[in-house]
Specification:
Largest sheet: 6 strands, parallel
CATH topology: Rossmann fold
CATH superfamily: Alpha/Beta hydrolase fold, catalytic domain
Radius of gyration: 17 Å
Mean pLDDT: 90
Distance between the termini: 21 Å
Structural class: alpha/beta
Helix content: 25-40%
Strand order of the largest sheet: 2-1-3-4-5-6
Strand content: 5-15%
Number of domains: 1
CATH architecture: 3-Layer(aba) Sandwich
Length: about 240
């Protein structure tokens, strides 16, 4: 590699209860990408893994002891975290990466993907900022249940209408990728399958991948990354 070469960037997010080390310690993302790049199946790229538990400066951690998943307190905490993470990604992290490393600084060379909670964050950030991303992936996670959820998903209105015009969307977004394990928890699997069917019905171009015989686990997400990464930065 030439010392002046520039590289595309994949922002790769962890899931709930984990941190930015998960994709290396358990996901083996470094080995997966090394092998794909060495075999010529994937383009060389920079991978950035950020801690998804964002809070605004001075904002105390929410007290969620005894609060259920769908409680108003949990809903508010999740919405606050998603909003803070979006601002951190777009206003701080991406400018820092582009000013520090030899990146291509345009949307055609920038991707975002994540597993479970990180998949929700990916959809939340990337669809609201298509000026920044042209490759989008959700691994066992996509839509935010605290902002309507899979059951209320309407391609005409979701994410400020980003998907409303399938032809325009296909010209702008080079890859929309959604994956799920065949043995995932029933409600989660049904929600992601519903999203796939809704996108199909609306003629929104996307890839749908099912990992055979795996559940909400790292083997699913390793396979997801192994399928997703070779599709990046080919346009």
């Amino acid at each position: 590699m030439h010392p002046k070469d520039r590289y595309p960037v994949l922002y790769l997010q962890h899931g709930g209860g984990e941190n930015e080390t998960g994709w290396i310690r358990q996901g083996r993302a470094n080995f997966i990408l090394d092998n794909l790049i060495a075999s010529g199946k994937a383009k060389p790229m920079i991978i950035v893994m950020a801690n998804g538990y964002a809070r605004r400066a001075g904002q105390p951690a929410p007290d969620l002891a005894g609060k259920g998943f769908g409680s108003p307190e949990m809903r508010k905490a999740m919405q606050d975290m998603m909003s803070a993470f979006e601002d951190d990604m777009t206003q701080a992290l991406i400018p820092f990466i582009d000013s520090t490393y030899r990146t291509f600084k345009d949307r055609d060379h920038r991707a975002m993907a994540g597993l479970s909670m990180g998949g929700m964050q990916t959809f939340h950030v990337a669809f609201d900022h298509l000026e920044l991303f042209s490759y989008i992936g959700g691994f066992s996670g996509a839509l935010n249940p605290f902002t309507g959820g899979n059951n209320d998903f309407d391609t005409k209105t979701a994410y400020n209408g980003a998907l409303a015009d399938p032809t325009a969307f296909a010209k702008r977004v080079h890859l929309l990728w959604i994956g799920v394990g065949t043995d995932e928890p029933a409600q989660m699997k049904a929600g992601i399958e519903m999203l796939h069917r809704t996108l199909d019905k609306a003629k929104v171009e996307h890839i749908f991948y099912e990992s055979p015989g795996t559940a909400h686990e790292w083997q699913t997400w390793r396979r997801d990354l192994n399928d997703f990464a070779p599709r990046l930065f080919r346009n």
